[in-house]
Design a protein that fits this description.
7 helices
Length: 190
Amino acid sequence: MPDRTNDFGKYGAQGIKVYEAVARQLDDLADFITSPVTTRRGLMARLHYLTRTPHARAAAHDAGLTVTDRTLKAWLAGTRTPTRQNLARVEAAYRTVRRHNVARYLLARLNRAGRGTRVEIHPLNQSGVRTAHQRVVEFRTLNIRHWEAIIDAWSTGDDQALDDAWIEQIVDLGSQWGQYEYVTNIGFAA
């Protein structure tokens, strides 16, 4: 089996780590609130999501939103606005709680009762690489049937575990799996 890439981009190739592309696609499937947290609408939507039940409040607190109830009420009433750091904390807590809440649903949709989900792997961009240094890396499709480790790592935000879980799934590509450590995009639907 090939080793991991040590010096990516040395000859001008462009792409992102495959686990980042997988996390981005899963985030798209999680259907986050589209209004930015910096707008009143986006902030209110996130705060309502994080404070609507005692369970949601506890999850938000565990995710790092540790402000007093008085401050939360003032934000919800619009009498005070959060600082930039608190906006970042609200966004991070919202994403963490949302990932946790949709993980079980996404897992069921992606596993599809053992049938799995077809994944499109778009290879890295070699347009900046001289012809002598380019290699043949084609568009690939792969059916992944076991998403448990991938979804678990994504929902907890563990990048290393997500990378390891993804590599474990794409070794089905045989000796070519190392060519897809960096990609331009990963596509799948649930």
